[in-house]
Amino acid sequence: MSLRASLRTFLVGDAQADRVVPPSGFTAQLTLFAAAAMAFLAVFAMALSLAAGRLAERWGAELAHSSTLRISAPSEQMAEQTAAALRVLETTPGIASARALDKAEQRALLEPWFGPDLPLESLPVPQLIEIVETEEGYDASGLRLRLSAEVPGAVLDDHTRWRRPLEAAAGRLRLLGWLSIGLIAGTMGVMITLAAHAALAANAQVIAVLRLVGATDHYIARAFVRRFTLRALFGAGAGAGLGMLAMLALPEAQETGGFLTGLGFAGAGWLLPLLIPVLAAGVAYGATRIAARRRLRELA
Predict the structure, then answer these.
(1) Which of 78, 206, 239, 292 could be bridged to 221 by S-S, CB 3.0 to 4.6 A?
(2) Which residues, 6 or more positions from 255, have their beta carbon under 8 angstroms from its beta carbon?
(3) For the CA atoms of 83, 89, 90, 92, what is the dihedral angle to 10 degrees?
(4) Are 147 and 88 in contact (CB under 8 A)?
(5) Phi first, then psi: what are they for 154, rounded to 5°?
(6) Where do the TM regions start and end (predicted)?
(7) Which residues pair with 128 in a beta bridge?
(8) How far apart are CA 239 and CA 34, in angstroms?
(9) In Å, how far from its chain's centre is CA 213?
(10) Each residue of 186-231: pLDDT tens digit?
(11) Higher-confidence residue: 2 or 209?
(12) 194 φψ region: left (φ > 0), alpha (ψ -120 to 50), beta (else)
């Protein structure tokens, strides 16, 4: 029998065999609720993982090819040292551009911490120079040596100490999201296994009669596997749909909102939650098949 024919037979089912499995009741409700709840949570876990991945990429892209030079010097020497630093940077291989931030830009950087009324002119604020690297990058150690000789008040920050912890944290969040999906799938499998055991135990007499009239354990188990698999598929479909609607209700990503406003799906990522019902059906299929065979051996 081809795969297509086997799938069609599984979906259509057997009316005689389906009578073995109760169409409603505690086990049906438990299976539907467990699949829907786990799928709903899986949507959020998947969204967390994808958002963490996007965050890691954004942080890496923003910080990987940029550096900052900070110049601390007396006010009468600031302009001279700034010009000297720019000359060094312009002749350094691997640096695409370098420019000194003006007073308005530096005030904007300090405003979130000190407010808009910061008297920048009366404070010994260092001069900042923004450095943009080429794809190949530059030799940070060599540049520090040149700066120490020509611009004693200059301190180079290549953002490595900021970028690596942020990328590591985002990577762990992504791993946590996928680990949560695995735990959700395992929990759903356990709950469906318990429901299948309860259904098999409740129908022990019916199973005994079916065996007397010639029904094989494979025939009986297939009825349970089919019913519980379809219940998990429909329940997970409903849960995933509700989860996607909940994700649509979240605020869109914003520069000022940070990570929490970017928790969601983007582009083709909206297709990924559609895999959750299929995954739930696969978990239910495997869990019910194992539970049915084990229980039928016990009832033999």
Answers:
(1) 292
(2) none
(3) 150
(4) yes
(5) -95, 140
(6) 27-48, 173-196, 202-220, 232-250, 262-287
(7) 70
(8) 9
(9) 52
(10) 998 888 888 888 877 877 787 787 788 777 888 778 888 888 888 8
(11) 209
(12) alpha
What residues contact residue 14 under an 8 Å CB cut-off, 6+ apart? 222, 223
Q: Which residues contact 110 (CB under 8 A, 6 or more apart)?
A: 118, 120, 125
Q: What pLDDT is attached to residue 124?
A: 73
For 186, residues 6+ apart whose C-beta sits below 8 A from its C-beta are none
What CA–CA distance (Å, rounded) separates 146 from 127? 18
With 0-12 / 13-18 / 19 or more C-beta atoms within 10 angstroms meaning exposed / middle / buried, residue 116 is: exposed
pLDDT over 60 (residue 266): yes
The amino acid present at 111, given as its one-letter code, is E
Residue 20 tokens, joined? 């073995």
Q: Alpha-carbon distance 227 to 292, whole Å?
A: 12
Q: Residue written as tokens 């799906």?
A: 265
Question: C-alpha 47: how far from its chain's center?
Answer: 5
Place of tokens 């479909």: 237
Neighbours of 172 (CB within 10 A): 13
The token pair at 106 is 């530096």
Strand order in the sheet with 154-157: 95-100, 127-133, 66-71, 154-157
Which residue in this structure is represented by tokens 């469906």? 192
- The structure tokens 């065979």 sit at 293
